[in-house]
């Protein structure tokens, strides 16, 4: 995973399957529904093999103001959260495991913007 670069983004939707079809028809992206408890989650393969690009997901909107979210790939979520909170950020979603052995967390920056953190499993 790229260190400290955006590696994933999520697009919230009222009807994730319908919006996934829209992006598939529009850009040729492929989607696969992934089992995530309590959340409809469609993982998107938007990047072509061996070419630049970021993969995405269309997710069930959790609230009307839910923004799209970028995830930054980091070596240690715990270290980044410690550094971020020491400089005025707050944690919106503590570190949690997700399918594939990864972990994610969500932080609110000092001016109220959300961003996600994604950590690959250690070997």
TrEMBL record:
Q: Which residues form the VOC domain?
A: 5-120
Molecular function via GO: lyase activity
**What Pfam families is this protein classified in?**
Glyoxalase_6 (PF18029)
Keyword annotations for this protein? Lyase
Q: Which InterPro entries match?
A: Anthracycline_SecMetBiosynth, Glyas_Bleomycin-R_OHBP_Dase, Glyoxalase_6, VOC_core
Q: What is this protein called?
A: Lactoylglutathione lyase family protein
